[in-house]
Amino acid sequence: MRRTAGGWWHSPRDLMAALECDHRLRLEHAAHSGLLQRPPVPLDGSLELVAQHGLEHERDALAALKALVAPRGGRVVEITAPQDDETGPSDPVASTAAAMTRAALDAQVDVVHQAALVVPARAGDPLGGGFLGFADFLVSVDLVTGEPVLDEATGRRRYEPVDAKLARTARPTALLQTAAYADALVALGHPVPQKVHLWLGGAPGGRVASERAADLLPLVAEYRERVLAQLATSGPVTPGPSGDVPSGADPSVLPEPLWADARPACGTCPWAPVCETGREDARDLSLVAGIRRDQVHRLRERGATTVEALAVAGDDQRPPSMSRPTFERLRAQAALQARGDAQPPGSPPLHVVHDDAPLRLLPEPDAGDLYYDIEGDPFADGGEGLEYLHGLTGADGSFTAHWAHDRAQERVAFEAVVDTMTAAAAAHPGMHVYHYAAYERTALLALAVRHQTREAEVDQLLREGRLVDLYAVVRSSVRVSAPSYSIKKLEPLYMGSDLRSSDVKTAGDSIVQYEHYAALTARGFHDDAAVVLEAIRDYNAYDCESTRRLHDWLLALVGRTTAAAAEAAAAAARAAAEQAVQDSADPLALAAAVGVDDVAGSADGSAVDGPDAVVRDLVGRLLAGVPAHAGERTDLQHAQALLAASLGYYPREHKPFWWEHFDRLRTPLDELAHDDGVVVLDRVDVSDWEKPPRARTLKRTVTATTSSGAGDVARLGRSPHAVYEAPAPEGMQLSADSARGTHARCGSPEWDDGVVTFVESTAQGGVDGWPEVPVALFPSAPPATKGKEAVVLDLARAALAELDAGREPDEAWWRLLLRRAPGLHHAPADDGADGDGADTVAAVTSALLGAGRDVVAVQGPPGTGKTYVGSRVIAALAQRGWRIGVVAQSHQVVENLLERVVAVRDAGEAKDAGAAQPAARFTVAKPKQDGDERDATAWERPPRVDAWLAAQEGGCVLGGTSWTFAQEKVRSQHLDLLVVDEAGQFALVDALVAGSAAERVLLLGDPQQLPQVCQGTHPEPVDVSALRHLLGDASLVPPEAGYLLDTTWRMHSRVCEPVSQLQYEGVLAAHPRTADRHLEGVEPGVHLHTVDHRDRTTSSPEEAARVVELVGGVLGRTWTDEDGAARPVGQEDVLVVAPFNRQVSLLRAALAEAGHEGVQVGTVDKFQGREAPVVVVSMATSSGDDLPRGVEFLLSRNRLNVALSRAMWAAHLVHSPALRSITPTTAEGLVALGAFVGVLRRGAGGRGVREVRERPDG
Questions:
Q1: Which intervals hold domain DNA2/NAM7 helicase-like C-terminal (predicted)?
Q2: Between the CA of residue 371 and those of 422, 540, 549, 605, what are the distances in Å?
């Protein structure tokens, strides 16, 4: 910001401050008002590196843009921007830059570099001034083709801002900054940008990340209002007699106190030292190690405002929402810190063991133990980052460094480290790998996925619990009088005189030094570079040694044998054994003594053969010659990379489940009581073991009380794992480092009023039962995917055979991978005034008849008749004799579509004017799934679908899941078409598996509603739905790829308009007949209800009370449908939606208590495809500090779309007003917040949304 004679000018930096920290905004205002001195900028080598690399990255982006427009002689205007980006518009350089920018935009050039955007304040604004910002680039060409982009309404060039950021991923502040430039363009009268762009690092030449401007412009308006409100506190700017501005200002502008709570943005804030000093001087609660911001706020409200106050706080000061163990833990931590801070300067921190159980549960020290630390450089490799050093120290103190100075070496080093770990585990079954904090584990997983190597080995290390995080052990067992539990704060307790004193003391220092090494190497100063590298090696070796000594210190706290002592004993035993063998001169005995027999592997260091070796070979062949960076690939190479990643898709999806499963086996039972995925059994009763008639195993019924709810039990699945404490009965599955046992021979559990009941069985041919009882139930394992994995292997082999022959596969599944559209040429279907959809059905049918081995998409937003169109297309083609498969993510979705197909067939509604012969009756079938107790269905249920399919002589329709179409005997039958319903939720790899069984593929769905759920981490974007993959970043299906159903029959126009703006670029419209409906006394549209509450995470009684009031207010009113039929609104006419199961349970109870138990309540997942005249949505969470799963989940545009679009007439959105002040930490979160704020701001401005402010009491 800048205070001038003309008033206050603000910049994107001020908007970013409003986003990240309102206190920083107030400090900046005070400084620019002359009330505060800005703190000096500290010398920081890492920040200098960022600036240096950032300038180089911007120059690379400029060169790339010049090359992009050069073939058509495009113009690039380069402008010199001021050094100070917060200068005023009267600055000569800024004034010249602004004039040059205006001239360039008027001349309609292709690219403007360092564009100066000056937006004066509105007339009559007492603040005067306005907005001034300098955009890296304003671009009016397509960033892929270089062709000019014109605004359809005006015919003028449409400029969009592009900012160069070295980061590998888009950050919220960067997106907001770029959106501010888009907002300035609009204010200056230019066409509204469709997108804003970031030119990111992470690949040679950079890569572009784009977001819809419409999702971010509401945030620019929101934060601009906050900035202007802050500036308004100083009153209008009044120049003095000579025209200059007085330096003084209203002292009330000065924040009181000058410091604020720490937050993520402190790391890059120039005012951070001011706040840090202020917190220390005030002895603020935030100094207590391990305390959260929300806990600070709650304790302050109870009178505990300092470390010392919390240390002596009484039990009556415990906040009601804080558990007693949490309060006692924080109080004890504060008390220890208060004592420690009173010690003489330089004293080591105090410590106390508050729970020795985690220390006693540490694995026994082993001669094969390793201590592991990684160094990484986020700036290396074009900003993509490089894990350049893996350090390993053995139990004997020996250190080994594995270096990597490029991507290929990174793979080699990673493989060497994993092979060292697996070899040590083979030679020493009791070994473990110790590290401090989660970085090493996370990096191992990321490297395995990035390089698609050693995935099975890393998975095995994690499943066996080989990696031990000593940070978690420290936090759960030892209390230290330090303000944090970083390992450097603990080292005075055990490093003694060996405390680090080198130039490289922190991870940030190591990054600076490694960049220095790279610069010296590039200039040929290899001797100097080697010195720098040796210093980094010493730093890493120290970290590993520190971890080893910490391990010994933790063991010694409870009198256990240390790792060093264990290694000494093992070394002595080895020496004695070797001496004895040497005396006998027996070389085989000598090999056995030193353990080399157990360390075997293949030539490349891997010890894995069989299926994994086959997969590795296929992956290697597919990726041969494929650039690592996606931006450098051709479409063909990208398809090869996707197929290579698909080979490991299913195992990767399963791994997180098993990692969590084995982590839970190692977790104490009292901690599992707080795990929503676990049902802890309290009082357990069991029946006698019996063998039912015709059963092969013994069975018994288990009945237990539990504090878990019905939803928790339901989420366990149909075959949960029963968990037994040690010693586990015979026949249980055990993990390497837990004595607990489990088995999955359990029936589907049932819950009734706090009691869970299930049946468990013995193994076939196993023991005759056991007397022990289970203590908990863990979730069911994921379904087996071996059949689908085999299909992907076949697809890879088939693709390689074609590619090796110089051809591409001529298959629909391959075209899906390539995103190759069938090249449809059609105008939007005109279904006439009646809107019966006949033209759309005919168009899609015709397109499929004319298609080769292609993929056609039909995108159906809420209420647009996707199922109507799909069922009639299927019926029309089946009547022609086509053999059609219908697949979806769930049996319910498949059966819903089959029911409609059968109804169309039986009613004779399938119209095919182009058919030469009279329509023939076709058959419909779907195999019976487990648990289906229905006596009859509208379709056949053959015991063998392959035999049924082979017996069909005419048209037929076969429904099933992806497992159905992965069966070889089904795949060998010819299918003309596979229809994927809800393709926006159907995994891409599942679509490849099922789609490869058919000649053509029809995708029905909407990727703008609920997305595909993915659990694993993958090296390529195979974790998306089939339809999302086909559309890429687009919101709407392009005409050449398929059909968009753009008229909703469900939503009134005033409900439709906010939904259309939210997700469908404003093209979704309501059918005129929706206006013929009416709900007595209720305006149509989206109604906003703000309810104040605090400290609510996943359930809010305040919102529940308001929901009950809203439901009660609509029941009994007269509802008139589009045909004029009138009736009272019943409980079945209202849907209540909440994001969390706990809020769902609370709402059900509250509604039942009010006599509205017939109102359906659920999460959005339960209501997709449903509709009702009235929908009430409860957000439940109080604020950003209370988010349980991140803003990306709570404010998900997809989930909000589904929730609001269930409403035919009125949707009520009940929420806390603090939700609009959330500070996202990811770009995805910022976009979600922007879309949500957009809905709220439309409420203030009409456009189908009404706002109702509620008092805290509802």
A1: 1034-1208
A2: 14, 11, 10, 21
Query: Are residues 867 and 841 in contact, defined by beta-carbon separation less than 8 angstroms?
Result: no
* Contact by Cβ (8 Å): 198, 163: yes
- Contact of 160 with 193, CB cutoff 8 Å: yes
- Nearest-Å Rg of the Cα atoms of the chain is 33
Retrieve residue 814's tokens: 């391959």
Q: Which two tokens stand for residue 2?
A: 């800048």
> Distance between CA atoms of 437 and 715, rounded to whole angstroms?
31
pLDDT of residue 87 exceeding 90, the answer is: no
Q: What is the dihedral of CA 672, 674, 676, 678, to 10 degrees?
A: 20
* Tens of pLDDT, residues 810-863: 999 999 999 998 988 665 555 544 455 678 999 999 999 998 899 999 999 999
Of 233, 252, 275, the domain-final residue: 233
Judged by phi (left if over 0) then psi (alpha if -120 to 50, else beta), residue 855 lies in: beta
The residues pairing with 1003 across neighbouring beta strands, listed in sequence order, are 857, 980
- The verdict on 774 and 871 lying in the same domain is no
Q: Is 574 exposed, middle or buried (0-12, 13-18, 19+ CB in 10 A)?
A: middle
Which of 213, 202, 190 minimizes the C-alpha distance to 385? Answer: 202
Q: Does residue 917 fall inside a structural domain?
A: yes
CATH code (residue 1153):
3.40.50.300
SS3 199: strand
Q: Phi/psi at 346 (nearest 5 deg)?
A: 90, -5
Single pTM value for the model: 0.84
Residue 60 to residue 66: CA distance in whole angstroms: 10
What pLDDT does 586 receive? Answer: 40
Q: Could you tell me the strand order of the sheet in which 679-680 lies?
A: 679-680, 776-778, 721-724, 738-743, 733-735
The tens digit of pLDDT for each residue in 892-930 reads 999 999 999 999 999 886 655 455 445 578 999 999 877
Handedness of CA 106, 112, 116, 122 (dihedral sign): positive
Q: Which residue type occupies 214?
A: A
Phi and psi (nearest 5°) for 186?
Answer: -65, -45
Q: Read off the pLDDT band of 606 (50, 70, 90).
A: very low
Residues 496 and 387 in one domain: yes
* CA pair distance 1013, 985, nearest whole angstrom: 7
In degrees to the nearest 10, what's the CA dihedral of 955, 958, 959, 965?
-130
Instruction: Check: CB of residue 1085 under 8 Å from CB of residue 1250.
Output: yes
DSSP per-residue string spanning 28-40: HHHHHTTSSPPPP
Q: What is the pLDDT of residue 1249?
A: 57
DSSP result, 533-591? HHHHHHHHHHHHHHHHHHHHHHHHHTTPPPHHHHHHHHHHHHHHHHHHHHHHT-HHHHH
Q: Indicate if 170 and 84 belong to the same structural domain.
A: yes
User: What is the band of 110 on the pLDDT scale with cuts at 50, 70, 90?
Assistant: very high
3-state secondary structure of 1003: strand
**Separation CA 113–CA 130 (nearest Å):** 22
Q: Which helix (H) or strand (E) holds 692?
A: none
**Per-residue pLDDT, 113:** 96
- Any domain includes 150: yes
Spatial CA neighbour of 404 closest among 388, 390, 417, 420 = 388
Q: How many domains does the chain have?
A: 6
pLDDT > 70: what percent of the chain? 88
Per the structure, the complete domain to which residue 739 belongs is given by 678-778
508 in Cβ contact with 46 (< 8 Å): yes
Tell me if residue 963 falls in helix, strand or coil: coil
User: Which of 585-589, 822-826, 1106-1110, 1141-1145 shows the lowest per-residue confidence on average (mean pLDDT)?
Assistant: 585-589
Same domain for 161 and 28, yes or no, is yes
Return the beta strands (E) in 313-357 as ranges: 351-353
Helix orientation angle between 439-451 and 455-463, rounded to the nearest 10 degrees: 150
Residues 443 and 463 reside in one and the same domain: yes
Six-digit token pair at 694? 């015709």
CA angle, residues 557, 562, 563, in degrees to nearest 5: 140
